[in-house]
Amino acid sequence: MKEEKKYKPNELKQYILAGLGIGVVLGGTILFSPNFPIIIGSILKIIEEVKGIKIPKKKVMRVLKQLEKKQLVNLERRGNEVYVTLKNKDDVSVIKYSLRELLNLKKKKDWRGKWFMVVFDVPEVERKKRNYLRGFLREIGFYPYNQSVYVFPYECEKEISLIKKIVEGGKYINYIIAERLEREDQLKIFFGLG
């Protein structure tokens, strides 16, 4: 009998939140319908496609029940299916996991020689928002070109639009596409580009 894979603490939770978030983001409903239900099978399929792993449904259910106790999701049984809804459509922790995974998927594409930049100018009186935004962009895979300019090698306008709507300080963000940047060699090394 095949031994079940052991997961690190919180690893399954991250996969499931990413799968749930991606399902909602790709469904285009996160901004309009916080109660959009996702079938557990869809979450499993997204995890398999994005991470290349199969997780037993019973493990996913166990984690979802924990998330329900923590008031992150609602679970509802309809016939043979269990539907999952996010309690808070703007839950940044869910969005962060899903954005990171969506951007990682883009890294598998061929680089076309352009740079996609997030530029922001958050006022000093909102320093906490500025620091949070910097950390958030680094965490989801952007390169800190300088303190207020972050770079990514693949088109990510939809993701940035989402960030603008969910992250405090998002109104100060601008999206720029550049053909060439100084210090491109550092960027290419950081993103593993040939």
UniProtKB/TrEMBL annotation:
<dbReference type="InterPro" id="IPR036388">
    <property type="entry name" value="WH-like_DNA-bd_sf"/>
</dbReference>
<protein>
    <recommendedName>
        <fullName>Transcriptional repressor PaaX-like central Cas2-like domain-containing protein</fullName>
    </recommendedName>
</protein>
<dbReference type="Pfam" id="PF20803">
    <property type="entry name" value="PaaX_M"/>
</dbReference>
<feature type="domain" description="Transcriptional repressor PaaX-like central Cas2-like">
    <location>
        <begin position="109"/>
        <end position="186"/>
    </location>
</feature>
<dbReference type="InterPro" id="IPR048846">
    <property type="entry name" value="PaaX-like_central"/>
</dbReference>
<keyword id="KW-1133">Transmembrane helix</keyword>
<feature type="transmembrane region" description="Helical">
    <location>
        <begin position="12"/>
        <end position="32"/>
    </location>
</feature>
<keyword id="KW-0472">Membrane</keyword>
<keyword id="KW-0812">Transmembrane</keyword>
